[in-house]
């Protein structure tokens, strides 16, 4: 019977109350940090951060789980960087600037020789004069055999 009274006295002690309050304090801090993280993450992903923070604030960890399931997969900044990179690569492809295989300088698509090192880049069609690859045996423009 003395053991039960000791256990009951422990649960009624100030130390036990302090431990419970400390535990509750950490739970509230973690909960509020989830609210703040949700707000920042939602804003970075292009959704309404205040709405999602309110959902997490009201529904606690269940609200956080809902947000983690429904949130956009990418940050807005990542999408913009990817689109800018694609646009840059497309514009470089449209310029059709190539590199000389010998010296590495920029040469245009229709150059016959490299203006820097004089390396032969293309052949000229004897009939139409259009630039042809070195390994072609027929002109694809006028059907002249080489």
Biggest sheet: strand arrangement: 1-2
Helix content: 55-70%
Instruction: Describe the global form.
Output: rod-shaped
Query: Biggest β-sheet: count, sense, barrel?
Result: 2 strands, antiparallel
Q: What is the mean predicted local confidence, pLDDT?
A: 90
Strand content: 5-15%
Contiguous runs where pLDDT drops below 50 for at least 5 residues: none
Number of helices: 4
Topology, number of strands: 4
Alpha-beta content class: mainly alpha
Distance N to C terminus? 111 Å
The SSE order reads HHHHEEEE
Rg result? 35 Å
How many structural domains?
2
Describe what this molecule looks like in 3D.
The chain is mainly alpha-helical. The chain folds into two domains: 2-75, no CATH class; 96-132, no CATH class. Helix content is 57%, strand content 7%. It has four helices and four strands; from the N terminus they run H-H-H-H-E-E-E-E. It has helices spanning 2-11, 14-44, 49-70, 76-95; strands at residues 97-99, 106-108, 123-124, 131-132. The strands form two sheets. The chain has a two-stranded antiparallel ribbon with strand order 1-2. A two-stranded antiparallel sheet has the order 3-4. It is rod-shaped and about 115 Å long. The model has no long low-confidence stretch (mean pLDDT 90).
């Amino acid at each position: 019977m003395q053991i039960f009274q000791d256990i009951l006295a422990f649960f009624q002690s100030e130390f036990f109350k302090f431990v419970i309050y400390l535990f509750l304090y950490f739970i509230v801090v973690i909960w509020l940090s989830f609210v703040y993280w949700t707000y920042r993450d939602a804003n970075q992903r292009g959704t309404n951060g205040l709405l999602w923070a309110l959902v997490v604030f009201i529904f606690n960890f269940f609200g956080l789980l809902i947000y983690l399931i429904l949130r956009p997969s990418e940050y807005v900044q990542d999408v913009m960087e990817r689109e800018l990179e694609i646009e840059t690569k497309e514009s470089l492809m449209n310029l059709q600037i190539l590199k000389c295989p010998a010296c590495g300088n920029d040469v245009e698509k229709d150059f016959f020789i490299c203006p820097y090192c004089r390396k032969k880049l293309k052949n000229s069609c004897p009939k139409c004069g259009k630039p042809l690859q070195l390994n072609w045996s027929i002109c694809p423009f006028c059907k002249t055999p080489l």
